[in-house]
Write a structure and sequence with these properties.
The protein is α/β, with parallel strands linked by helices. The chain has helices spanning 33-47, 65-68, 81-91, 103-109, 111-120, 160-163, 169-174, 190-208, 223-226, 230-244, 254-257; strands spanning 53-57, 72-75, 96-102, 125-130, 179-186, 213-219, 249-252. The relative contact order is 0.14.
């Protein structure tokens, strides 16, 4: 039996962005890396800049990002994505250059690179996925792991007396004069996902106008390593991560404030 669909009764609400490859990913079920990928790809399509965008992949769960985005990508050594992006942007200043990094990569091994890129005011966009652990290597404690949070390397919970406090990367980078746009968003519900997309678009507009360094931090879930279902993970992010990692605009250059998305 063949069913004929009436186009007047249907409305297309979503289709895969051209900037995403039509393939399966290696991400665990429930992981919000896929949501972040989609938002970045949608913005690139909407701006019509796919042929002018170059991404730099980190080492971590996002190590295969170059297989999923349908535009030019290069792979950086662990933590060195901002340094590589700096070189790419200086050689090809007319390109849109982005890095896509996790917390172990950017906030630990690559902290020096991102701090100095921001201090120099490099005209690049950094997209920072914060899921509070080293996701790829087994869920070990990361610089962003919350106080008391249990991980595979802190089974009794993060002890601030011996292991220190989590690093709030957005607040840290916002103190640097070279940074023009530094914000934190979350991917735990539709409202915040829409706000994250607006921030991503703003970051691209900052680069288009040559205003300097931008960083969008996105709080993300890791159901596998957190030992939770995806739904439980979304609730935990909202109840535990958001109070510690405030969703806010931490640095907005006056010229950036004039951009209306």
């Amino acid at each position: 039996m063949t069913t004929t669909l009436d186009p007047e009764l249907e409305q297309l609400v979503y289709e895969r962005p051209d900037s995403l490859v039509d393939c399966a990913t290696h991400y665990c079920p429930g992981c919000t890396h896929g949501v972040a990928h989609r938002l970045i790809a949608e913005v690139i399509d909407e701006m019509g800049i796919r042929e002018k965008t170059i991404g730099v992949a980190s080492v971590g769960c996002s190590v295969f990002a170059y297989n999923y985005f349908n535009f030019d990508f290069v792979q950086a050594p662990h933590g060195r994505a901002p340094a590589m992006a700096t070189g790419v942007k200086r050689v090809l200043p007319d390109r849109f250059v982005i890095t896509y990094q996790g917390d172990g990569d950017m906030a630990s091994i690559g902290m020096a690179e991102v701090v100095h890129a921001a201090a120099r005011g490099e005209n690049i966009c950094v997209f920072f996925i914060n899921n509070a652990n080293y996701g790829m290597t087994g869920g070990q404690m990361a610089p962003t792991t919350l106080p008391g949070q249990k991980t595979s390397s802190s089974p009794s919970g993060r002890d601030i007396e011996t292991q220190g406090y989590p690093i709030r990367a957005a607040e840290l980078l916002a103190t640097l004069d070279g940074a023009s746009y530094v914000v934190r968003r979350s991917l735990h519900d539709p409202k915040n996902i829409r706000l994250a997309k607006k921030a991503i678009r703003t970051a691209f507009e900052v680069q288009a106008r040559g205003l300097g360094f931008s960083m969008v931090e996105m709080l993300s879930i890791c159901p596998t390593n957190w030992g939770m279902t995806p739904l439980q993970s979304l609730q935990w992010l909202e109840e535990k991560m958001v109070p510690y990692y405030a969703l806010n605009d931490f640095k907005v250059h006056p010229a950036v404030a004039e951009i209306r998305i």
